[in-house]
Predict the 3D structure of the following.
Amino acid sequence: MRHAQYARGATLVAAGDAAASRAEATAEKPRMSRIQRKNRALILEAGLEVFAQNGFRGATVDMIAQTAGLSKPNLLYYFRSKEEIYTTILADLLAEWLNPLRALNPDGVPLDELMGYVRRKLEMARDFPRESRLFATEVIQGAPHIQSVLTTQLRDLVQDQSDILSRWMDEGRIARMHPVHLIISIWALTQHYADFDAQVRAIVPETDPYPAAADHLALIFGRLLTPQP
């Protein structure tokens, strides 16, 4: 059939390929069973553990399969490669971490919205340290697997939320500053506690650092964001 298509000309080939692509794109994907959903979740959790311990280069499909308690062929039924597991984990992490930023209410009280965002980011650093460090390692290496996501979805979201911050500044409801760098500063001052957990706990070994960190960040950002009379 392929030879016949070529004989009828490149235009017909292109049309046939386009139709096939549309059919594939619109075809309804079969729903996963409960066991399939469970296995997929096991693979992603195992992948997170293996990548967090060994990095992308040091991890192997065999290591992930063993950690998940599945055979390698079974794992490859769900994911075609180590890279597909890795990029899925990173995409899921980024989506989860950006939810608090998406949740900023443009009609809310600006100081309450931003202080809530700082608090939620610190809580995520406390609750998901492996995820934070894995993402940080990827970005430090130049984000080779998620660069397209950073330059599209992430950049667009930051710009949209920066517009909200700029409006609040124009209305005199929060102090004026660069809105994008305000968001970056919140990331830096919260995710540090996950990415450099060993350093933080070496300095304050006798106690959980997060309650004091929450109070400290509330003080910093409360003063920074409050408009001056």
User: Anything to note?
Assistant: The domain at 31-80 is CATH 1.10.10.60 (Arc Repressor Mutant, subunit A).
